[in-house]
Design goal:
The protein is α/β, with parallel strands linked by helices and about 500 residues long. It contains 20 helices and 15 strands. The N terminus is likely disordered.
């Protein structure tokens, strides 16, 4: 039971999901203590608050068996502040998870008791196998179709598990956390790499794997950001960032080699001050993971144990909800002029594709529907900039269940919807992530939006009454007789643009 004292005023703003009850996870790790408050327990998690304090609870643990008392004090001070945050935000339920440092230290019992007294909630100390399981669930929650090995690198340990068809197998845990590697190697990344090689020989999961490896953990996220900047990648977002294992291996070897020579490693200025010294140890472990598992692709996940634990709290039917669709529907409710119009737009664009006999794969249909939910999120912006703002909201939004090519696709749909077919304000490098075939489809859907919105004024009820036909090379827009007044120069111009994208040479608006 939570023991928070009450707050009389309801702090909920109109821009939040009505009736949502915040849920929080306090994550007590070997490197940092972090509190994340989410808007509600749902398939798609939206963060209300996210803060961490570097406490280094795992520092020196391998030698002494103890958590240093000054680090305990630092953690408890941060947790007192986090308790206040939970009270102010009227959090309904708090889950407290502790990992390797707490489970291994001989003096953790009093620390755990103090945390429970401060937060009024029981601390769950995870076993290595439980860490691996929840990390795997975190990967599944953000990338529902992922198959392969998941590795969660923390300060004290590395957890490995295998995901096949959405299910994870029994996990493994190794003493390969970055703080432990720093300590055990005597602050030598090359020695840390040798230790990683030796310790990973016991892994049954890595033997003969190949395929994809999903990397989780703050230090590996920093490594991904370094890779993105050094490769001039247009989307600086870790979630679902996929790279060739051979390319990442070269960067990791360059990092370890530079430190061995006493030089700044490539991209060291990019890493945050709290992670900068740990990245070489994350690189050392990654080298041996790639070599041991013979992986072809590395995919990074920003979701891990915290999100996986909450995913495990959901009923089975809610776990099967598409997180991208849920998030886009939520955003439509919060940001569009009329959420019901999105469903009209889904049927309208689907009818157009059927009329021109353009087939859709399930993934193409899914992204089109998501684009319809997001199509009106920019209406409050200044007319000269609402397109760029809408594209930014979609391309850089906090969505899961979509890879970077899918983000680029959605970005181009909204770019065309707001700025037309000749827009030149959005990064072409970003749009190119979707590829030429998807880009053409995005332009087609965006152009269809530009036909639908002038007729409907973003309100439901009109679009279901109009339809498309393609007859003898002519794209016809059929209006009911009582809406014949919608026919005009503006609508015909938009229809001509849509036909041009579809390589159709003639159009006609028909009433009746």
């Amino acid at each position: 039971m939570n023991q928070y004292w009450g707050v009389d005023a309801d702090p909920t703003a109109q821009g939040r999901i009505k009736g949502a009850r915040p849920v929080a996870v306090l994550d007590i790790g070997s490197n940092s203590v972090r509190l994340v408050v989410y808007e509600r327990l749902a398939r798609s998690l939206t963060t209300l608050y996210n803060e961490k304090t570097a406490c280094a609870l795992g520092r020196g643990l391998a030698k002494t068996g103890l958590i240093a008392y000054e680090n305990i004090d630092r953690a408890l001070t941060a947790i007192q502040r986090f308790a206040l945050v939970c009270r102010l935000m009227k959090v309904g339920e708090v889950h407290i998870l502790a990992t390797s440092a707490v489970r291994e230290a001989s003096n953790s019992e009093s620390f755990v008791s103090a945390v429970e007294q401060t937060m009024g909630t029981r601390v769950r100390v995870l076993s290595g196998e439980e860490e691996a399981h929840f990390a795997a669930l975190g990967a599944i929650s953000g990338m529902p179709g992922f198959d392969g090995v998941v590795g969660d690198l923390g300060g004290g340990s590395l957890e490995l598990s295998v995901i096949t068809s959405g299910l994870d197998a029994t996990g493994e845990t190794f003493e390969l956390g970055v703080i432990r590697m720093q300590d055990d190697s005597g602050v030598s990344p090359p020695k840390a790499q040798a230790l990683a090689r030796q310790r990973l020989k016991k892994s049954q999961i890595l033997k003969g794997q190949g395929g994809a490896f999903c990397a989780i953990g703050g230090t590996w996220r920093s490594l991904a950001k370094v890779h993105q900047v050094l490769r001039n990648y247009p989307l600086h977002m870790v979630q679902h960032y996929a790279v060739k294992a051979s390319d990442l291996l070269r960067l990791c070897e360059d990092i370890v080699g530079a430190v061995e020579l006493g030089k700044p490693y490539p991209g060291s200025e990019i890493a945050s001050s709290g992670r900068r010294d740990l990245v070489p140890y994350g690189a050392a472990v990654m080298i041996e993971v790639i070599k041991s598992g013979r992986f072809e692709t590395i995919v990074f996940s920003a979701l891990g144990v915290r999100e996986g634990y909450l995913f495990g709290q959901l009923p089975v039917d809610e776990r099967n909800v598409d997180p991208l669709v849920q998030a886009s529907e939520d955003l439509s409710i919060l940001r569009s002029r009329s959420p019901g119009h999105a469903h009209d737009l889904i049927a309208f664009t689907g009818g157009f594709l059927k009329a021109i006999d353009l087939p859709e794969s399930p993934e193409e249909k899914r992204l089109r529907e998501v684009g319809c939910f997001l199509a009106d999120v920019g209406w409050r912006g200044h007319p000269d900039y609402r397109g760029e703002q809408a594209v930014d909201l979609v391309a850089y939004g906090n969505f899961t269940g979509v890879d970077h090519s899918g983000r680029a696709f959605l970005a181009e749909v909204l770019a065309v919807r707001y700025m037309g077919l000749k827009q030149k304000f959005i990064s072409q490098e970003l749009l190119d992530l979707s590829g030429p075939i998807a880009s053409q489809r995005a332009r087609l859907i965006g152009a269809a939006f530009r036909v639908g919105y002038p007729m409907s004024a973003a309100m439901p009820g009109v679009l279901p009454r109009v339809r498309f036909e393609l007859e003898k090379g002519v794209l016809r827009l059929i209006l009911p007789s009582d809406l014949a007044f919608l026919d005009g120069e503006h609508l015909r111009s938009r229809l001509d643009q849509l036909a041009g994208v579809a390589a159709i040479k003639a159009t006609w608006v028909v009433a009746g």
